[in-house]
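I am sending you the entry underneath: sequence plus fold tokens. Let me know what the token row says about the fold:
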Amino acid sequence: MNIVKAFPDEHVWSVAARSIKWSGFDSSSIFFDKFGIDQSHIKPTKGNCHNITKLAKFKEFEQLQKSGSSFLLWYLNFDRTECADSELNSAEYQQARESQLTVCSEWKFCPCCAQENRALYGTAYWHNKHNLPFVTHCTKHNMPLSHVANLKDLDSLIMPNRLAADRIQSQQYGEEFFNWSRFVERIFNMLEQNPSVATQLRQKIWSRLNPVPNEQKKRRNHFNGLLNELEAIVPNSILRHCFQFYRDEKRRKSNILFTTYKRDGIQIRNPVYMLIILYWIELEDSSIFGDLHETTNITGNPAK
């Protein structure tokens, strides 16, 4: 079974789905057998899932783990990135449950990109950056992404240009969501250009959260004060978009800053915790990441 060449910014599961169809097989079973993955649901935003880890052991997918999934955003969990690959790919690492998050399980695409892709390559495909965690917009065309439900496995993952119109759900978001999406994409691009930037980004986070008092009561008050500052500048609509306890007032609200700092024995959390803090830091001072832009310009595109 041959693996097709990935298109620019193509999601790893999009490459896999096209490979299955190109090979002429009606079922993904041969693909599963060859690469040793199970038939659990594929998750578009999940970059550190065990199936992508298994695919990355094969040269056909090794690079796609980083360029074709959100894997690099999970680097934000580590103060040192030297061993991030092995640690993220290790089944031994305990990962935080995502019950507090409003994780989107639907695939997303930009109709304008789909048209352009079909004109250039003869087919549309699923873009990785459209399916990064909590992204809502295509930053190239400044338009909300369309959502498609019930594409839960490789057999059902058809390309966007082959979707029936009644399966496509249009979404409406305010301008603040475009700014948020552009920020998330820019962070991903920075990590793609230079993964060690994750260490510097983490240092920015700890600098903003410190100094943390040693006394427990004072520590709580310290983080509550910081959270008030974050909530005053990060749009509430973004917080509601990312976290269940902001969307549902009946749920006990967690202090995401204290949770990120304390960890509770969890080594790996969804990167949205770090992304929200980094977004808060940038909204306070738009020049704060200027020293990290040596290889990446302000739009997140590789500097020419």
Notes: Confidence is low (pLDDT under 50) at residues 294-304. Residues 12-75+98-169 form one domain. The beta strands are 107-109, 137-138, 143-144, 146-148, 168-169. The first strand starts at residue 107 and ends at 109.
